[in-house]
Amino acid sequence: MRKRSQPWIQRRSRFVIAAIAAFGAVITAYLTLTKLTGGTAACPTEGCDKVLESPYATVFGLPLALFGFLAYLAVGTFAVLPWFANPETKKSLRNTLEHWTWLFLFVSSTAMAVFSGYLMYIMTAEIQSLCLYCIGSAVCAIALFVLTLIGRDWEDLGQIIFTGIIVAFITLIGSLAVYAPIHSPKAETDSGYAITTVSAPDNVALAQHLEETGAKMYGAFWCSHCLEQKQLFGKEAAEAIPYVECDASGTNPQPDVCQAAGIQSYPSWEINGQLYPGTKTLDRLAELSDYTGSQNFSVR
């Protein structure tokens, strides 16, 4: 009886899985380094930095991308692990590795795909910005899931699907639990973003001028650049800044106002009907708002 030929995808699936995992590891390694060094991601849009600055980009005090890197590294390692067992002299070991590594690949890729899907929802619905690197990582995770599903001739496909449903449920519940504190009413006060500088009188005068002329600073409570901007003003002046909170979890949030104003990054200043994204020096804000008072700006 002629033996049924094995489909190409099943013969090369481990190689393809390892290649995709390596690509995903490169993406997440780059995002991890960018987050740890406080740098700016090389991205055609400002959405990448906005996503990296969000509270969702940090888990247990570490960059979320770091966990993604470790996951891709693990998947790549388990994809090639059976290759190190000689099929001639260590056939039993190789068969054991084939079985258990396939199970690991399916469970891990299922969890990664579900978590990536949840992050895509967060990115579009909560952060409302697109990070091309994050989308690339999500595509890798979904591709890994598809490949582990079709890359092997599973003996009991029903059992595998049932296992996948259980893993997906656990992953989703875990994701909601991890990010639950972000939606807590105490999220802003617990974030650690406190203004520590003291304002000079001219700083307060500029802040009052900005308010009187209808200027607005758009930001989010978790935005590190927004904190930098407020630190330039000092605590007293920052309290007088015409500030608009864009995150729904912040104090007195006005996300609809931010959306109507077309805010794409934080902080963004609206002065005399014009938008100016990014942190500005007080001298620059004085120039943009036609401030003519004393400009001995300083903080201590």
Structure, explained:
With 300 residues, this protein is of the alpha+beta class. It folds into two domains: 8-183, VKOR domain (de novo design (two linked rop proteins)); 201-288, Glutaredoxin (3-Layer(aba) Sandwich). The protein has eleven helices and six strands. Residues 185-192 have low confidence and may be disordered. Helix 1 (8-37) runs antiparallel to helix 3 (64-80), helix 4 (91-127) runs antiparallel to helix 5 (132-150) and helix 4 packs across helix 6. The radius of gyration is 25 Å and the shape is elongated.
The CATH class label of the largest domain is Mainly Alpha
> How many E strands?
6
Here the CATH topology of the largest domain equals: de novo design (two linked rop proteins)
The helical percent reads 55-70%
Q: What string, H for helix and E for strand, traces the elements in order?
A: HHEEHHHHHEHHEHEEH
Number of helices: 11
Reported for the largest beta sheet, the result is: 4 strands, mixed
Q: In whole angstroms, how far apart are the ends?
A: 87 Å
Task: List the strand order in the largest sheet.
Answer: 4-3-5-6
Mean pLDDT, as a whole number? 87
Rg:
25 Å
Spatial shape: elongated
Name the structural class: alpha+beta
Instruction: Catalogue the unreliable spans.
Output: 185-192
